[in-house]
Amino acid sequence: MSTPKIKVLEVEVHNMQWDELRRHRGAKKARMYFFCKGENLIENLLGRHFRPKVLFRQVFDEVFTKAGIEKPVRITWSQYAGCRCPCSPGFILNGIYNKNIYVTYEGEKVIEEVKVAFEQAVTQKTETAQQSPATA
User: Fold this and answer.
1) What secondary structure letter does DSSP report for 37?
2) Nearest to 69 by CA among 122, 116, 136, 11
3) Each residue of 58-86: pLDDT tens digit?
4) Phi/psi-derived region of residue 100, left when phi > 0, alpha when psi is between -120 and 50, beta in every other case
5) SS3 67
6) Kind of pairing, strands 29-36 and 6-15?
7) How far is CA 2 from CA 8, 54, 55, 99, 103, in A?
8) Rama region for 129: left / alpha / beta (φ>0; ψ in -120 to 50; rest)
9) Distance (Å, whole) CA 109 – CA 8
10) Quick one: 57 exposed, middle or buried, by C-beta within 10 A (0-12, 13-18, 19+)?
C-alpha cells in the first residue's frame, strides 16, 4: 500500500445528542467526517464533491486506533452522510452506533482540483454557447 498523502492531526469522538437520536427514532449508525486543516469555509463548500476518499481510506487504521474504537467491517462513503442534502459528506460506519467521529488532517487540499473542474466547465459552456446560434 502506498504512503498516504495526508497526515491525521486530530481525532474526536462525540456521542450523538438525544435530540439527534430522537429524529432518527433510536440508534443511528456512526458517521465519520474529515476536515482539512487550514481549509476555509468557501474551500470546504467548493470541495464537498471532490473529497479524496481513497486517501481517507488509507488512514482508517490510524483513525480508529486514535479514536479507541474497533474498525468496523463495512465502511461506506456517502455524499449524504450527515444530511438529506449533499452538504456533509462522510463515511457511514456499519456496526457502530450513536457516535460521530471528526478527523482533522493536513495534506491533500482538494481546492485545486475544484478550480480546474470549474474552469473546464466554464470553458466548455462558453464554447458551446459560441457554437450554437442565439435564439430570440
Assistant:
1) T
2) 11
3) 999 999 999 999 999 899 999 888 878 88
4) beta
5) helix
6) unpaired
7) 16, 11, 10, 30, 20
8) alpha
9) 13
10) middle
